[in-house]
Specification:
Elements lengths: L13 E2 L5 H6 L11 H6 L1 H14 L3 E3 L7 H5 L5 H23 L12 E6 L2 H5 L13 H16 L5 E7 L2 H14 L5 E5 L13 H6 L7 E7 L6 H11 L3 E5 L5 E3 L4 E3 L4 H13 L4 E2 L7 H11 L2
Helix pairs in contact: 3-5, 3-12, 5-7, 7-8, 11-12
């Protein structure tokens, strides 16, 4: 039987961390690569550990590992065999655990806090394709094919004993079902959250109504939280209201900073303001979210501002 890692927080809000990839870029990493932040697992793992630590210092209760883009097929394209790929996925979890343990070793960090969690990131099939299809959900794979894709990488991540899985930026209901079924059939001890990418106020990136997608997850108790991420902030309140009307599971959200991404030039446009982000998050909390953080282009400054009022 699985244990719900959020139980230690009871009814208090949980502060999620912010972006990994854009924070690595701010610190000098070149992520113009199909492996994205997973590339840094190979080249500069200590920098990933430092980003995790900085998020804990900023107030995060959860570290999401740098495994979003990690997959056996993706690493194989770089000439890595299965053993080496599994070791890198497990390293992503270990780096977050090391940062968490270092942070928690200082008793001064216990004040008003629960021991932070480590959530192993499980990105969608489309992330491996590195063509933006995780924001479309149109990769044309059956539920069985998606189960076969996710099963070995979930096994590799769970071997490093994270507190739970963060199945994130899921663009279509069929992939959410595939992940839930893999957990139920093969990993009954594991807990997970499933977070969708959405294109508007009511629908997943592939056009499926969020309401329908979440309704299908009600039968899977291992899915301890559901929500939306990597979505523009302007859509979050109506999406959360839809979720709150459908499920009794914990609700989570970690939207983008509010900047716009150009998939052609692979650049971000606009500006972000940590205080504005934190102020917007007040509405997400009122709409039912109990786990709140940031996705693309958010930083430790955003999480610090967010944690400041959530714990205030």
């Amino acid at each position: 039987m699985f244990a719900n890692p959020f139980a230690r927080f009871q009814d208090t809000p949980v502060v999620l961390d912010g972006a990994m990839a854009s924070e690595l870029e701010r610190r000098g990493c070149d992520l113009n690569d199909a492996l994205w932040s997973a590339r840094v697992l190979i080249e500069q793992p200590e920098l990933i550990r430092q980003v995790h630590f900085d998020y804990f210092v900023a107030g995060a209760d959860v570290a999401t590992t740098a495994s979003y883009q990690a997959s056996f097929s993706g690493f194989a394209k770089r000439g890595l065999d299965e053993a080496a790929a599994a070791e890198l996925m497990q390293r992503s979890v270990q780096l977050a655990q090391q940062a968490r343990d270092e942070f928690w070793a200082d008793a001064a960090n216990h004040a008003g806090r629960q021991q932070p969690l480590v959530a192993a990131s499980v990105g969608p099939y489309g992330a491996m394709l590195a063509d933006g299809s995780e924001y479309r959900g149109d990769y044309g794979r059956s539920e069985t094919e998606l189960m076969d894709f996710h099963r070995p990488r979930i096994a590799a991540l769970l071997a490093a004993a994270p507190d739970l899985l963060a199945c994130e930026t899921i663009p279509c209901a069929v992939e959410a079902r595939a992940i839930a079924r893999v957990l139920q059939q093969d990993f009954p001890q594991a807990a997970a959250w499933i977070s969708f990418s959405c294109r508007d106020d009511a629908n997943l990136s592939d056009g499926t109504p969020l309401l329908a997608a979440v309704a299908e997850l009600e039968a899977y108790p291992q899915i301890v939280a559901v929500g939306v991420n990597c979505t523009a902030p302007r859509h979050i309140v109506p999406l959360l209201q839809t979720l709150a009307a459908q499920t009794g599971k914990r609700l989570l959200t970690y939207p983008n900073s509010g900047e716009a991404y150009d998939a052609v030039t692979k650049t971000w446009h606009g500006s972000s303001d940590p205080m504005a982000f934190a102020e917007a998050a007040r509405q997400w909390r009122l709409a039912g979210a109990s786990c709140i953080g940031g996705c693309c282009r958010t930083s430790p400054d955003d999480i610090r501002a967010l944690a400041g009022w959530l714990r205030g």
